[in-house]
Amino acid sequence: MTNQETILAALNASASDYLPGLLGVRFTAAGEGWLEGELTVRKNLLAPNGFLHAGTVITLADTLCGVACARALPDGAKGFTTIELKSNFLGTALEGVIACRATARHLGRTTQLWDAEVTDKASGKTLALFRCTQMVLWPKPSGG
Predict the structure, then answer these.
(1) May I ask the CATH architecture of the domain 3-137?
(2) Which residues contact 17 (CB under 8 A, 6 or more apart)?
């Protein structure tokens, strides 16, 4: 197994028992400051109106940004939490696979800023643009 395959297998395994695994998010490529993934559109990910549920798209983008953020944390940080997110929807998919690429825009010691683009994998059409800000969490100092 290549290093890339080992990383992706570990990422997919770590998400399998949580919401991303429930929805079927699959991590497909990873690098310094970016992460890619996808999910297959199925009926239970649609809204009652028949369109892809906005929450499905947001969950894909937020998952990719969050996992990429965790991979990019500064040494000594204990984690992160989302403090803001925004999505703009430009289209929908009713079938097939949607893909996402999360890209770091700012990797600071107290915050990180991530952008993601969600596309229809077959056509390449942009379905949504997503941006989130993550607050880096540090261990509390010990002592009195």
Answers:
(1) Roll (3.10)
(2) none
